[in-house]
Structures are given as structure tokens and as C-alpha cells.
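Researcher: We're teaching a course module on how sequence relates to structure. For the next exercise, students receive a sequence and then see the predicted structure as C-alpha cells, so they can try to spot secondary structure elements on their own. Here is the exercise chain.
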Amino acid sequence: MPDPGPQSGLPALIRDSWQPHLALGITGHRATNPTYGAHAAAIAAALDALFAQIEAMAAALPGARGAVRLHSLLVDGTDQVAAESALAQGWELAVPLPFGAALNCAINAHPRTLADADALISGGTASDPAVEAKAAAIRGVIGRAQRFELADRDTEIASLWRRTLSHPDDSTAQRAFDALASDNVALAGRVMIERVDLMIAVWDGKVANLPGGTGHTVTAALTMGAPVLLIDPARPATWRILTRPEELAQPVDPAATPDMARLEAIIRAAVLAEGWEPADLARETWRPRSSPFFGLYRRIERVFGEGGWFGSLRISYETPGVIASGSGAPVLAAAEAMPGGDPAVARQLGEAVLPMFAWADGIANRLADAYRSGMTVNFVLAALAVMVGLAYLPLRMVEVKWAFALVELLLLGGILAMTAAGSRCGWHRRWFAMRRVAEYLRHAPALLLLGVARSTGRWPRSRQGSGHGSGQGGADWPEHFARHALRDVGLPQVAVTRDYLRAGLAGAVLPHVTAQAAYHEFKAHRLERVHHRLDKAAETCFVLAVAAVTAYLVLKGAGAAGLVPKALASDLSPVFTFFGVAFPTLGANLSGIRYFGDFERFAAISRVAADKLREIEARITLLLSGTDSALTYAATADLIHALDEAVVEEIASWQAVFGAKHLALPA
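Model: And here is the predicted structure for the students to work with:
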């Protein structure tokens, strides 16, 4: 295979394919709501004006970005009016539907007869002109949107709904339908909330406990960390921004005016990572193999973990351009085989997401080698400096002591040079950033194929500068980059059926979870062994130091007692002095490497991660082997969220261990 070159085309991919965009959500009263009906025209005008203001704010931000994307459940009333306004602005429209497209259209057209309901469900035309007009309006908007249809329970929902139409007095069927439909609407609302930077709500603030209702969606958004721009339907030209659920209970100032500065700040924070821009990432250099100069840390791991003193440590990294046909081939094949799957998502996985992962992973590995080996070298040089500085004593070369001092000085200078290089090049900071990017993207297929996302307010916040080189940059840019890389793919345009869920779980998610659990189990076992053996080696050094000092004292005493010549202890004193200093120094530096590497805590982190992943693996297996009715999107999404939480918690634990361990002088 020809050498793909140091950059492997990825900076161009970032520049051309990665574009942050503003994501909005809309929720509000239905057309049947009295307050909405009385102010429908004013609400539509207010939404048009608000969207124009948001468009202007987004357009004024520096740098290239994608179009604003509005998410809507397309319920009649606010949702549909906002969708039309967004399309008129040239925005993208993403629609997580609570039901399959045909059933959703039928339910929201509000047919009065079973015949019209059946006609709409089958894709036909309703005989009632008013019903058909509503259905046509819904079809017209949906046809221009990216649809994600929660169709896994359509048969059950349609059956209950038909029963309510054919038996209007059957209160049991009505309650069952209302409960099931509300649950699916709430679920679609969660899908929407997970993807937005700002939720826009037209709500009178009266009912908040109806699952799937506007108040429920507002409360859920605030709970999940998404700010809400709340419009009073009776006074639609005024609005306020909320960020906490508790603010809903605060009195409203009728004289307050819309806070444009706060709205602009939310838009800016959503689209830009302050102190960072994509060009910074494009300056990172990907190389196909590990550095031959920074392998000492991995040599320590091999020697104390596997017992291998020799052999090459060079590692070849998977080329971003070939990952789709390499390690990523199984998940791409699974994506392409999902019944009714979205080929655009599979294509973006192969052409953008997986190459970005391979690129970030390769860079992170090299930076990890540089940082961790740099610190390990410092410990080794520190031990050598002490031992070389005293080596003239047992060698009886006092007359050339200056030569040993010169070598000691060079070794100490090497420590200073290594520390300065690590600080100047930002190995620690850049490694932290690139590793976070890689880990967020590693499990991206599971999220993207099943329409699951981490809500904007629940992404980790870093307290550490993570810029490039010597600059600090934006500490949270890896989360910003990964969030937008995943968001750029968007919702798959699919009808989520049970067959689709089964194929996604069995083909894409379960193999990934199993492989990651096995990796963490192996890693934990190896690091535990490294920790134990380093501990034993350090203890042995101190035992040998005690033995050297004891031997000298015994020899001195034996000379005083006349058991051996008195001069013998004096003659061997330089040797005992050397070993009495060298062994504790070596032991202390081995302990320093053990402390710096924190192998025991990393092993514990991997053990915890492996346990969580094995539990998720067991849950997926049970879900796949259980009754078909249990395999729902809600259950599947919960498992994907559990996987996402396990990944993020592992990253957080890893950062907590190494966050403060900058490359420094060994003390």
C-alpha cells in the first residue's frame, strides 16, 4: 500500500465536511387550544420575526457553518406553522415523528370516521375535505423534511386508535390509546430535545404534567440542560429565556422585553468554541506509525506487564482513508444491511465519522507516547544522574571525577530539555483533547444508526485548557467538535421498525459493546500486573539498599573485632556507598514511574468500565432474545444512552487521574 502521507487528507475533510450549525426545537399548543386559536395570526408573525432575528444572528458569526436546523414533531398548530416558517427561511427541517409517517398523518388530520382513518393509514385520500386538507398540509411539510419515524408500535397504536373511532363510548380503549400515544409523543420529544441548542415553546404555562404535551416537553428540555425560549401565546411578541426547571415557577414581569443579548449569547455558544477554530485541529499531523523515539513508557508496560524485554514497539495506525474497508467494515456492513436503513448515514459513517475517529485516535496515541514516555525518561535520567555522579567512587577514578560530573550535568540537562519540550509542544494538553475526540467518535455508529444523541446540556465540561501548542485555546473544543460531527450526520431518514431495531442492536451495537468490554478487561489485567511488578521491583531495590548498608556495617564491626582486616571495610566503602545510594534512588524512581502511571487506578477504571459494558451486553442479549413486543425504541434508546454514559464516565475518570499530571521535573 502506498504511504498515504502524514495528513492523509483529513484536514480537508474537516474543512469541507465538518460544519457546526445551530439546532432549534419547536413545541407549542395545538390549533384546538383556545388561546392559540385566538392569536394564531400573531403567533405566526412572531415566529417569522423571531426566526429572521435568529438567522441574522447566526449569519453574523465568523466562519463557515451549516444551515440552521429546526426540529419539529409536526403536530397541528404551532409545530406546523413553525415548520413552514423555517422552510421559508431556507433552514433544514428534521422531524422525529411519534409514529410512522402514514399513521402520524392520519392521527394529526383528526378524521371523524373509521373509513377516513383507514384511508389515510393506507396512504389514500380522506373523503372529508377538511380532514384531507389537514392531511395534505402534513404530507407537504413532511415531504421536505428529514423524517425519523418511531414506527415500532404502529400496529398496536393503530389498533387502539381504530377502536376509539369505531367505539367512541369505549373509555378503556380511549385511555389505552391516549397513554400509548402520549408515551410515543414524549419519546419523539426526547429525540428532539437531545439535538437542540435552544427549544422554542409557545405555551401558556398551565398544564405541565401531560406526557408529550407542550409543558412536559418544556420541563424535559430544561431538565436535560437545553435552554427554552418561552413565548406567551396571548402576547406572542414577548418572550423570555429559561435555563432551569425552577424558573417556571417564578413570577413573570409583564414589562420585561425580549433579551436579545442572551439569545445571541446562546447562539454564539452553540456554534462557536471560544478560543478555538477548525484550523487549529487541521494543524495536527497524523502519521502512520508510532514514534521510534517515544516508546519507553510502553516498554515499561511490556517489561512489567508481559515480561518482554526486547522486540519492536512500533505500532502502525489504521489509515483514515482505509478504515471503512478495515476495522470499520463490519459496522458499515451492518448499517447497510439494516432493513429500511438510510444509505446516507452509512455513507457518512464511512466517509467522514470513522475516518475522523481513526485520525484523532492515531494522533492521540502518538501524543500519549510523547507525554508519558517523556515523563518516564525524566525519571530514568534522574536515577542515572545520581548513579553516574557517584560511579567514580567504586571505579576509583577520583582524578577524573569531573568527567562523571559532566555526564551527570548532561543527564540533568536532558531532564530540563524534555520538560521544556513537553510544555512548549503541549503534549499533555493536546493528548487530552485528541483522546476525548477519538473516544466520543469511537461509539458514534451506535448513536447515529439508532437516532440517539447526548443532549447539549449534558456534554462534559472541561476545567483544563486544551488548546494546541503553547496556547490555551477553548477547553471544551473536543466536545464541541464531536457534538457537531455527530450532529452533522443528523437523524437517519428511516421508519424505525422492530426489524430495524433488532438489526441495529445485533449488528452494530452488540459487537461494539462486547469488543470494548473485552478490551477493558484485558487492559485492567495487564495494568494490575504492571502495578504489582513495579511495586515489587521498587521494594527489592530498597531491600538491596538495606543489605548494602548492613553489609558495610557488619564488615566494619568484623574488622573492629579482628575477624577480618580493618582496611577491608575502608577499601570497600566506596562500593557500599555507591550501592547504598543507587538502590534507593532506583527504587524511588521506579515508585515515581508507578505513581505517575497510576496503573492501579487505571486498572480500576477499566474494571468499572468493563463491568458496565458487560451489564449492557447482557441487557442487549436479553432484549434480543425476549418477546418481540419488548423490543421497542424506548428500550433500545435506554441501552444506547447507558452505553454513552459508560463511555463518558470512563473518559471523566481517566481525566481525573491524569488531569493534573503535567510533564514536570521528577521530585
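Model: If you want an answer key for the exercise: The chain has two domains: 21-249, 290-658. DSSP finds 23 helices and eight strands in the chain.
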